[in-house]
């Protein structure tokens, strides 16, 4: 069992990495963190700024490096790796700046159309390249029935106990069994490289670059091989941001128009299944992040996620799942205050 480092020990290890890279540790300024233990720091030098990714072992540093090289080879904009210490969980990265999609949309909501169109086009570019390539995908785990089921089990294991409605083992298994035919649909449908966290907080606007090169990709190290619609669905059904349903539909239509070989009805059905699965996972995951990691602010997004889940469950192929939620997580339970 790995014993977590103290903050002081981790800071000392990060400073040693920076010193070995010829950077001043005193110039490191925290810029971002997320629901994982991973954090990011901006380091200033005379010539330019760079970013330190601090991802304590076992972490995902090797996957980030491998997948970053692969995505760059497909013509996507990902941060260049300038130095690495895999054993201790550090990377020195190209700095993509502060123009994240999230910041841009907050500053000017009218940019939503062009920004989401750019991200959709970048995803089309990636999927076209992968379909046309004779080279295999990088070695990533499958987004298969086992993993999809594990993710939806977070709802049973974290949300329901938190609202005082834990399931018995047989009832928990019955819930998972309802998903089995849906996940079989996904496994039988078109597959691609799924980045999994494709949303506005992991996308950057890169000045001075043209076309889809202007869309910078971050946080792709957890990628898997899985259902074709997943990443676009993740972008357009964002747990942390309200998105106009008309814009969501427009981006789905844009993707299908750009890739006419994709069968539209199958894509839309698989989108709904992916959406229901992801939102179920996220509800449980946000509660886990609160209870296990002491990060309660994610709970504020739960009303939006419930609304997205309810919308996904309106698809005719999801009626059995919808009935289960109506019975086991009615409106009063969904609205129960958790803090």
TrEMBL record:
Chain ranges of the Aminoglycoside phosphotransferase domain: 30-262
Domain of life: Bacteria
InterPro entries registered for this protein in UniProt: Aminoglycoside_PTrfase, Kinase-like_dom_sf
Pfam families noted in UniProt: APH (PF01636)
The protein, known as: Aminoglycoside phosphotransferase domain-containing protein
Organism of provenance: Novispirillum itersonii (Aquaspirillum itersonii)
């Amino acid at each position: 069992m790995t014993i977590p480092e103290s903050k002081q020990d981790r800071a000392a290890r990060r400073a040693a990495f920076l010193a070995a890279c010829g950077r001043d540790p005193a110039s490191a300024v925290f810029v971002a963190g997320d629901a994982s233990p991973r954090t990011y720091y901006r380091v200033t030098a005379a010539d330019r700024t760079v970013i330190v990714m601090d991802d304590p072992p076992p972490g995902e540093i090797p996957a980030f490096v491998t997948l970053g090289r692969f995505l760059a080879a497909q013509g996507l904009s990902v941060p260049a790796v300038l130095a690495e210490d895999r054993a201790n969980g550090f990377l020195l990265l190209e700095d993509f700046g502060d123009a994240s999609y999230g910041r841009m949309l907050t500053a000017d909501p009218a940019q939503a159309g062009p920004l989401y169109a750019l991200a959709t086009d970048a995803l089309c570019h990636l999927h076209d390249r992968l379909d046309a390539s004779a080279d295999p995908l990088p070695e990533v785990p499958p987004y298969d029935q086992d993993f999809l089921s594990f993710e939806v089990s977070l709802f049973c294991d974290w949300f329901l106990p938190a609202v005082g409605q834990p399931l018995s083992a047989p009832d928990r298994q019955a819930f998972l069994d309802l998903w089995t035919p849906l996940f079989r649909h996904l496994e039988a449908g078109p597959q691609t490289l799924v980045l999994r966290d494709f949303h506005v907080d992991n996308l950057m606007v890169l000045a001075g670059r043209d076309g889809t090169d202007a869309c910078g990709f971050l946080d792709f190290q957890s990628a898997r091989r899985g259902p074709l619609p997943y990443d676009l669905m993740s972008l357009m059904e964002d747990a942390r941001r309200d998105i106009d349903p008309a814009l969501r539909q427009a981006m789905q239509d844009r993707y299908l128009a750009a890739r006419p070989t994709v069968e539209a009805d199958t894509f839309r059905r698989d989108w709904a299944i992916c959406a229901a699965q992801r939102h179920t996972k996220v509800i449980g995951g946000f509660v886990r992040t609160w209870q296990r990691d002491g990060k309660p602010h994610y709970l504020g997004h739960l009303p939006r996620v419930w609304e997205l889940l309810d919308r996904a469950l309106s698809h005719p192929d999801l009626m059995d799942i919808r009935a289960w939620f109506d019975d086991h997580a009615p409106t009063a339970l969904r609205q129960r205050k958790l803090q």
